[in-house]
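User: Please predict the structure of the protein below. I'd like the answer in structure-token form so I can feed it into my own downstream comparison script.

Assistant: Understood. Taking the following sequence of 297 residues as input:
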Amino acid sequence: MKPLVILAVSIGALIWLASACLFIVGEGQQALVVRLGAPIGVEDKPGLKIKAPLIDSVFVYDTRLLLLLPPTEQVIMGDQKRLEAQPYARYRIVDPLRFYQALRTDEQARAQLSQIVSSAMRRALGEVGLDKLLTSERQKILASVRDEVAAKARPLGVEIDEVRFHRADLPFETSQAIYDRMKSERQREAKELRAQGFEWAQQVQSKADRERTGTLSEAQRAAIILRGQGEAEASRLLSEAFSKDEKFYQFYRSLQTYKHALADSGATLMLTPSSAFLKLLVTGPEGSSPPKAAEAK
């Protein structure tokens, strides 16, 4: 039993000694070896590395691009308008020794860089108006923020790759006020367009009425002329007919008179037998024998 205990203790001691003397640097990592609080070297190649047990400490940092996303905050613009902005930055640890001396840990680095980015963003946005963010000036503003952050992060062993806005929105109250103002402006424009359209409609209607009146007048004038020409032609034909046979013409006119007079009368027409109106009906046209009924009377 005792040899087994000694073997187990020996194996445990070997495992502890291996973990105390060895460390691994992975792909995309770099390690700073610190002996009794003093940095002694940087391991930037991946693989298994050796350190002194108990007196050496190893701080492993990432060499890849890291994302920094500070919290959203309200910023007062140069035109006194408020903006809810959330920037983001991409950075890389390029000097582990400086990074260790200035920041030590990734959490401390994120907190420090967030303050630097926030201060630079507030300073840059406080010098411009809100409308500048909607033009090509936006890129210049972000470039100035990046340059300022990069200059302050370089002594910390950090290289800034880019700084941009993750989001930049107006506060809800400001957005609602702008929306209400835009809505009122669109309603005013709609009323103006409706009034303009009604005016155009009146103009078109007036023009159409004038053209209609002119067309009707021209048509009536032409109709009167044609009617007059027709009546003149009819009178000419009647005159020719009258000159050829006067009795037939008088007989025809009498029939026309009967037609119009009797058509406009009611069901009963009271006349005396000796009425001149009935003469033609009683005697018939000249040259013809009177009806037997009339002779009997």
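That's the full token string. Residues 293-297 have pLDDT under 50 and may be disordered.
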